[in-house]
TrEMBL record:
GO terms for molecular function: oxidoreductase activity. Gene3D superfamilies: 1.10.1530.10, Hypothetical oxidoreductase yiak, domain 2. It holds the Pfam family Ldh_2. It comes from the Eukaryota. Coiled coil: none annotated. Keywords: Oxidoreductase. Belongs to the LDH2/MDH2 oxidoreductase family. It comes from Bathycoccus prasinos. This is Ureidoglycolate dehydrogenase. SUPFAM superfamilies: L-sulfolactate dehydrogenase-like.
């Protein structure tokens, strides 16, 4: 997974005004600070409250109702505060598009511990959030909850959001996602895989669950779009052009090229293939020409640690995690972080100061979207069969 938004300190002496519009949902609360924009380290510094409200209005321009808007907003801001490129870039790059021909979402239960969700071409975040909630409820009843989704065609965002929701229940949460052909298998010119991320949250005693969120690609697709928006080069060895040559030009990668898997080799390629199969054909999602099919898939597991008979799992997982963190470090290594710790620390830092750095072109684009918001415009509630 790639990170592109930089933390920056606000200019000394700047006084921020209080905001009258706090975030409605608790996950993205911040120090109440009104919009006052300054430049630092190349980013535009924006109050979290204004970024949240601007993003909310921009989402509503797509025609989403209040409930759907807040769900999408919560997931986007979760990522944005962590410096994860699964955030607000999606609003300005068609990543949250609404299909005017969407049909009601259908939920079936093949067996008591599982559910299958036909998303009806509704928003991927809304469908996957519901899938995580169902998996949790089934896990409470049966010790395991398994939910597959299909027929969504928009990004599901940061999988850590959903996995952590499960982990916070004291369950092991595993979330797999498939997407259109953006990534080339090892040795290939042609893109066949999606970025195929995995989210995994493992609870422990005495602390927050450890939450892994990573793409099996070397770079996120929306990382390419961020680079295109900012005009900045890509890191080396993350993408190739249409002829199979490595490139740092996002435009070349997007013009018939492909992203690489994370080690540019067979191990990451094979892991991506497994996710492609599990979050694709297994759940009834498309397995060829996925973008045109508008049928992307996800697979969610919620597992109660007690079903395998080890009542000491939480203590033991905490021990292993601390053992990793406290391992003897190599020279020059200041700390060893568990998955998710860097993002959690950055989110906490951003919330504490109440501001966040946003790439200038992205902030301008988001404001332009928000300016189109008309509170009297027609909204289209998500329908459930």
């Amino acid at each position: 997974m790639s990170f592109s938004l930089k933390s920056a300190s606000i200019t000394p002496g700047v006084t921020m005004m209080k905001s009258k519009s706090p975030l409605k949902r608790g996950r993205v609360s911040s120090a109440s600070k009104k919009s006052f924009v300054v430049k630092a380290s190349g980013d535009t510094m924006v109050s979290i409250d204004e970024l949240t409200e601007t993003t909310r209005k921009a989402i509503k321009t797509y025609g989403y109702d209040e409930k759907a808007t807040e769900c999408i907003l919560d997931i986007l801001m979760y990522a944005q505060l962590r410096g994860n490129n699964q955030g607000i870039i999606k609003v300005t790059t068609n990543g949250i598009a609404r299909d005017p021909e969407a049909t009601p979402i259908k939920i079936t239960e093949p067996v008591p511990l599982s559910a299958a969700i036909d998303g009806g071409n509704n928003h991927g975040m809304i469908v996957l959030d519901k899938a995580a909630e169902i998996a949790i409820e089934k896990c409470k009843q049966h010790g395991v909850g398994v939910v597959g989704t299909n027929h969504t065609f928009t990004s599901t965002g940061a999988l850590g959001y959903y996995a952590k929701k499960i982990g916070e229940q004291g369950m092991v949460g595993i979330v797999l996602a498939q997407s259109p052909e953006f990534v080339a298998p090892a040795g290939a010119k042609q893109a066949i895989f999606g970025t195929n991320p995995i989210g995994c949250s493992i609870p422990r005693k005495g602390g927050e669950p450890m939450t892994l969120d990573m793409a099996t690609s070397a770079y996120a697709f929306f990382g390419l779009l961020e680079a295109k928006t900012s005009g900045k080069p890509l890191p080396p060895n993350v993408a190739q052009d249409k002829d199979g040559n490595m490139t740092t030009d996002a435009n070349a990668a997007l013009d018939g090229g492909a992203i690489m898997t994370f080690d540019c080799g067979y191990k990451s390629s094979n892991l991506s293939l497994c996710i492609e199969l599990l979050a694709g054909p297994l759940v009834g999602a498309a397995y060829n020409d996925k973008k045109a099919a508008k049928n992307w898939g996800n697979l969610v597991f919620a597992i109660d640690p007690k079903i395998l008979g080890n009542d000491d799992f939480l203590e033991q997982s905490a021990f292993v995690m601390e053992r990793v963190k406290n391992a003897e470090r190599k020279e020059g290594v200041s700390s060893i972080n568990l998955p998710g710790e860097r993002g959690d620390a950055l989110a906490a830092e951003n919330k504490k100061k109440g501001t966040i750095g946003v790439e200038p072109n992205l902030w301008k684009g988001l404001q332009e979207y928000a300016a189109k918001y008309d509170p009297k415009a027609e909204v289209f509630p998500i329908e459930w069969a």
